[in-house]
Amino acid sequence: QVQLVESGGELVQAGGSLRLSCAASGRTFRDYAMGWFRQAPGKEREFVASISRSGISTYYADSVKGRFTISRDNAKNTVYLQMNSLKPEDTAVYYCAADRTTYTHTASTEYDYWGQGTQVTVSS
């Protein structure tokens, strides 16, 4: 079992920045690729970004490429999502997830463990 707890979501103006954190406990953090997803009201959960076990490789949805950066600190059992140039359409609940196989998965069904989510609201 892996327990994940997100934090850092809040209300921010368009053009602003936020950094989300996801703290992991339980099994060895470095054994898991990590991903961030988001879900807006009335929409399906969508892939945002993912990172390999080592942190060397990353993958982004086209909608956030160039604005968001995923990173991880295996010594702190934490994965981060730095979000810059935020837009109102980025408003959603953001979830982190752990995948025991690969960082290249973009479907939520491929991930094994999930956090409870943190709300990000971007005002125009």
How many DSSP H or I helices?
0
Structural class: mainly beta
Percent helix? under 10%
How far is it from the N-terminal to the C-terminal residue, by CA? 40 Å
> What Rg, in angstroms, do the CA atoms define?
13 Å
DSSP strand count: 11
Summarize the entry for a quick read.
The chain has strands at 2-7, 11-13, 18-26, 33-39, 46-51, 58-60, 68-73, 78-83, 92-99, 113-114, 118-123. By secondary structure, the protein is mainly beta.
Brief descriptors of the model:
mainly beta, seven-stranded mixed β-sheet, 0% helix, 124 residues
Topology:
Blueprint: E1 2-7, E2 11-13, E3 18-26, E4 33-39, E5 46-51, E6 58-60, E7 68-73, E8 78-83, E9 92-99, E10 113-114, E11 118-123
Parallel strand pairs: 2-11
Antiparallel strand pairs: 1-3, 3-8, 4-5, 4-9, 5-6, 7-8, 9-10, 9-11
